[in-house]
Write a structure and sequence with these properties.
The chain is mainly beta and about 120 residues long. Helices cover about 0% and strands about 50% of the residues.
Length: about 120
């Protein structure tokens, strides 16, 4: 079992920034891929960003240039830096982990989520 605990969500004005953290109970060096999904009101859950054990990254088109995913292996933590936030970014953000390979929309483990609200 792998436990993932998110933190860093909150209320921010449009144009502002937040940094989300996802702490893993398992060494992230041994995890093939980690990242973030989000689910906003009335929307399907969508992949926001992913980082693999070799450092490769990918992003949803809607967040390219604004969000950056990174990892700290010593802290077993993955981060999502979110800049230039828009109201459309309002959602519950969920951390995930795939131990050996990625199956689209079916991660091996999920965190419980952290709420991000972008509003004036």
């Amino acid at each position: 079992q792998v436990q993932l605990v998110e933190s860093g969500g909150g209320l921010v004005q449009p144009g502002g920034s937040l940094r989300l953290s996802c702490a893993s109970s398992r060494s992230i060096v041994t995890i093939f891929a980690m990242g973030w999904y989000r689910q906003g009101p009335g929307n399907q859950r969508e992949l926001v960003a992913q980082i693999t054990s070799d450092g490769g990254t990918k992003y949803a088109d809607s967040v390219k240039g604004r969000f950056a995913i990174s990892r700290d292996n010593a802290k077993n933590t993955v981060y999502l830096q979110m800049n230039s936030l828009k109201s459309e970014d309002t959602a519950v953000y969920l951390c995930y982990a795939d131990l050996y390979s990625s199956i689209p929309d079916r991660p091996d483990y999920w965190g419980r989520g952290t709420q991000v609200t972008v509003s004036s």
